[in-house]
C-alpha cells in the first residue's frame, strides 16, 4: 500500500488523534474517580475486567505481530513482549486468586491466599521462571538493539511512554498513599490510572508496529535501510 493512499484515507492523522485520545482519557480519570461508585474499584469489578481485557488483547496482538513480521529483530521483540504481557495479566488476575472468592467484605471480595490455591506453591516459581525468560530473551536476542534503533530512527513513542509512566506512578500512589490524600477515592484512582497505563502500553506497541511495518511502505525508506529514493525519468522532472 502506497503512502499517498494511506494519506488519502486519513491515516496521517492517527498519531495526533491517538495523543488527544490518551490525554482525554488521562484527564478524565479525575472526574471518574469522583463520580464512580467505589465498588467499581473492587477486584472482579468493571475496571479490573476492563484491564484484563486490555492485557489479554495486548498478549494476542503480540502473537499476531510476531507472526506477521518478517524482520528478525522486530519479530523477536514481539515474542519478547509476550511474557511481559503475560506477567501483567497474571498480576491483574492475582495469579488466579480472583477465581476463588470466599466472601464479600466492606472493601470488596476476599479471596483465598496464594498458598491455599490448587498448586499454589508453584505460583512463585512460575513467576520467577517467566521473569528469567524475559531477562534471558532480552540479552540473548539483543532486544535492546531494537529499542536503541527506535531512538536512532526517531520512531520511539515518547509521548505515549511518558503518559504510561505518569499513569503508573499515579496508580502506585493511589494504592500506597493514605486514602485521605485522594479524599477517600484512592482505590478508584489506582484502577483508573492502571487502565490508562495499559491503554498507553497497547498504543505504544501499535505505534511501533505502524511505524516499522506500515507507514514506511509508501516509498519512504526506513532510516539506515540504504534504499535509494526513486527518481522519475519523465521529461521535465
Report what the structure shows:
The protein is 62% helix and 4% strand. With 237 residues, the protein is mainly alpha-helical. It has one domain. The chain has a two-stranded antiparallel sheet with strand order 1-2. Strand 1 (101-105) and strand 2 form a beta hairpin. Helix 3 runs parallel beside helix 8 (186-214). The longest helix has 29 residues, at 186-214. The protein is globular and about 50 Å long.
Question: Strands, helices and their partners?
Answer:
Blueprint: H1 3-8, H2 14-35, H3 46-68, H4 72-92, E1 101-105, E2 108-111, H5 123-140, H6 143-152, H7 158-176, H8 186-214
Antiparallel strand pairs: 1-2
Helix pairs in contact: 2-7, 2-8, 3-4, 3-8, 4-5, 7-8
Strand fraction equals under 5%
State the low-pLDDT regions, or none. 1-10, 219-237
Would you tell me the overall average pLDDT? 84
The whole-angstrom Rg is: 22 Å
Distance between the amino and carboxyl termini: 24 Å
Percentage of residues in helical conformation? 55-70%
Oligomer: single chain
Q: How many distinct beta strands?
A: 2
Overall number of domains: 1
H-E order = HHHHEEHHHH
So how many helices?
8
Task: Give me the secondary-structure category.
Answer: mainly alpha
Going across the biggest sheet, name each strand in turn. 1-2
Shape: globular
Q: How can the largest sheet be summarized?
A: 2 strands, antiparallel
Amino acid at each position: 500500500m502506497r503512502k499517498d493512499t494511506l494519506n488519502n484515507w486519513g491515516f496521517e492523522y492517527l498519531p495526533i488523534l491517538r495523543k488527544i485520545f490518551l490525554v482525554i482519557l488521562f484527564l478524565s480519570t479525575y472526574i471518574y474517580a469522583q463520580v464512580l461508585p467505589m465498588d467499581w474499584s473492587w477486584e472482579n469489578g468493571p475496571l479490573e475486567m476492563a484491564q484484563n481485557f486490555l492485557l489479554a488483547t495486548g498478549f494476542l496482538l503480540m502473537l499476531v505481530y510476531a507472526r506477521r513480521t518478517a524482520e528478525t529483530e522486530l519479530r523477536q521483540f514481539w515474542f519478547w513482549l509476550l511474557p511481559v504481557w503475560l506477567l501483567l495479566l497474571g498480576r491483574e488476575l492475582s495469579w488466579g486468586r480472583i477465581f476463588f472468592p470466599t466472601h464479600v467484605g466492606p472493601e470488596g471480595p476476599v479471596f483465598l491466599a496464594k498458598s491455599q490455591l490448587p498448586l499454589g506453591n508453584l505460583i512463585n516459581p512460575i513467576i520467577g521462571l517467566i521473569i528469567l525468560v524475559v531477562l534471558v530473551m532480552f540479552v540473548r536476542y539483543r532486544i535492546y538493539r531494537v529499542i536503541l534503533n527506535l531512538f536512532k530512527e526517531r520512531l520511539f513513542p515518547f509521548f505515549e511512554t511518558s503518559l504510561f509512566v505518569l499513569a503508573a506512578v499515579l496508580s502506585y500512589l493511589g494504592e500506597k498513599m493514605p486514602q485521605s490524600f485522594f479524599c477517600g477515592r484512592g482505590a478508584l484512582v489506582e484502577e483508573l490510572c492502571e487502565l490508562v497505563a495499559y491503554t498507553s502500553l497497547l498504543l505504544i506497541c501499535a505505534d511501533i508496529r505502524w511505524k516499522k511495518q506500515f507507514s514506511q511502505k509508501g516509498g519512504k525508506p526506513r532510516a539506515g535501510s540504504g534504499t535509494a529514493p526513486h527518481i522519475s525519468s519523465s521529461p521535465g522532472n
